[in-house]
Amino acid sequence: MLKSIWHTLGDIRLAVILLLTASATLLAGSFHAEDHFSLFMALNHMRIQDWLPVQWASRPELVWWIPVLFVIMALLGINTFVCAANRCLRLVGQRRNMARGRFFYLLIPSLVHFLFITIMLGHLASFTMGRWQRIPLAADSPIAVSPDAPDYRVAAIQDEFYPQASALGGRLRQTAVALVGAGGQALQLQYGRPAFIDGRFLLIDKAPQGEKAHKKPMPAGPPPARRPGPASTEAAQGPNAGQPLLVIVSDPGLAVIILGLTLIMALMIGYFLFKPKSAMWIAPVAVLALLVVHPAAAAAAESRPEELAQIEGRIQMLSPDPAFKDDRYGLIVVKEALTSLKEGSGGIGACLVHEQTGEVVCTGRNRQYRPYFRSDLHAEMDLLNRYEDWLRKMGGRTSGADPRDCAHLVLVSSVEPCPMCLTRIINSGIKKLVYVTPDERGGMVSRMDRLPPFWQDRARDCDYRLAVCSPAVRQLAGDLFDFSVRTWDKKKEETK
Ligand SMILES: [Zn+2]
How many A from CA of 302 to the centre of ligand 1? Predict the structure, then answer.
């Protein structure tokens, strides 16, 4: 019961549903936010728990989507956590079978997921624990940055304007605010250049345009102009349009967010730089050096080993999905296909399964190019050779005279068999065949009606079809096959 709840929570389909719901909620919310901009802008400098109850009481129809979004994000966080935790547990289980470097390499995506959750928690902290203070700036006025630290004092406020002759003539270019601390320490602030002191960000902002917009006359004389002191009428009337405000932000979530993002970036760089099974770091450095030194090598190296390593990583992460009855064997033939590719032959694998016991009787893979060129050694041919040789060693078929009596066997191939292999399979007496991925260009099973009548007749009571496999396994079988087809096409291109 608990286990099924756990698995439902970590289901990737749940993640998709949640993401779609979050998008729909955000879309609905964006219409409200557009129509009531200033209402939602207030959230930028208010804690959510101070803002939401007030708005909820007066305008629930405008703000309903915010708590909904919080619930969806919380569920998404739980989903991400469970999903990443499951993956980590699987990896830890397989740890004995892999090198330490590879283990950490495969761990990185899950670590990134955990960091993503940390960043979401950082945002939650910003929403609930952030504090924003807005203080009108006037020369000589005291500024209390934090309750525990002595006050600062505004030493000077200087506006700089664009030259009258320029296109922006007379417009404000920058405002510099100098603060002096009790100990005499000076602090310079400008628009877009905040300072960080006593655990708080200090930035300058402008009082919003609009209410009582007391228009300041453009300075006639040459800039810079000096603002009047606190005795002026302007300061006495409170913040005016264009008057600088000091914003003091205390945001405990920000450090978490920045730290999380930095770590994610570092991990991603590590992930893409350090490939598994390389001598940890020497190999990528050597490859990089080679690429820089010899541009021709770049073309040769391309991304082949990298792509293969990536496919291998995907295979290692996969376990058969019991919802698909052929998935277990699909994964076995996919692994054979990978071995074949690593040996330098084609990316196709095959196996023979005893239908009643489910036991894998024999495995085979493409061996066309290694150890030497053999045009007949497609995966299915290799498999049947091995099986028939083994039978011979065992003293022939136990059931009697007919060497084609193998009704109990199912041949599983990672790719739809070609004409040569299909006729061989028919000829072998095997009545059941499943293949993980179709081959539209070279596959013969989907074109059995074009076989010569003799072979069509022979295959009449055969059941040859696409395997029932999970999309992940099917994709892998296709990717491995594509990989070898591309390599082959490229070789042909080069020898032209
Ligand atoms: Zn073949």
Answer: 28
Q: How far is the CA of 463 from the centre of ligand 1 (A)?
A: 18
CA 310-312-314 angle, to 5 degrees, is 75
pLDDT at position 315: 93
Question: How far is 258 from 459, CA to CA, in rounded Å?
Answer: 65
131-136 and 200-206 beta bridge pairing: unpaired
CA of 306 to the centre of ligand 1 (A): 27
Q: Can you identify the CATH homologous superfamily of domain 308-495?
A: Cytidine Deaminase, domain 2 (3.40.140.10)
Q: What is the dihedral sign for C-alpha 136, 137, 140, 145?
A: positive
Q: Which region holds residue 429: left if phi is over 0, alpha if psi is between -120 and 50, else beta? A: left
Distance 263 CA to ligand 1 centre (A): 48
Q: Assign residue 184 a region: left if phi > 0, alpha if psi is -120 to 50, beta otherwise?
A: left
What is the rounded distance in angstroms from the CA atom of residue 431 to the CA atom of residue 27? Answer: 55
pLDDT of residue 298: 45
Q: How far is the CA of 417 from the centre of ligand 1 (A)?
A: 5
- Which run of H or of E encompasses 187? strand 186-190
Å from CA of 346 to ligand 1 middle: 10
Task: Give the side-chain half-sphere CA count within 13 A for 120.
Answer: 19
CA 421 to ligand 1 center in whole angstroms: 4
Domain boundaries, the chain: 2-130, 133-250, 308-495
Q: What's 325's DSSP letter?
A: T
Q: CA-to-CA distance for 100 and 395, rounded, in angstroms?
A: 46
Q: What is the pLDDT of residues 346-380, one digit of tens each?
A: 999 999 999 999 999 999 999 999 889 999 999 99
For ligand 1, the distance from its centroid to the CA atom of residue 438, given in whole angstroms, is 13
Ligand 1 centre from 418 Cα, in Å?
4
- How many A from CA of 322 to the centre of ligand 1? 29
How many A from CA of 433 to the centre of ligand 1?
13
Ligand 1 centre and the CA of 218: distance in Å? 84
Please, what is the Cα angle at 173 between 167 and 176, to 5 degrees? Answer: 165
Please give the Cα distance from 142 to 154 (Å, whole number). Answer: 6
What pLDDT shows up at residue 239? Answer: 47
Cα 156 to ligand 1 centroid, rounded to whole Å: 84
CA–CA gap between residue 351 and residue 331 (Å, rounded): 11
Q: How many angstroms separate the Cα of 480 from the Cα of each of 127, 336, 374, 484?
A: 47, 10, 20, 7
**Which one has a higher pLDDT value, 166 or 421?**
421
The half-sphere exposure of 155 on its side-chain side, counting CA atoms within 13 A, is 13
Rounded-to-integer distance, Cα 195 and Cα 126, Å: 19
Question: In which region does residue 385 sit, left (phi positive, over 0), alpha (psi from -120 to 50) or beta (all else)?
Answer: alpha
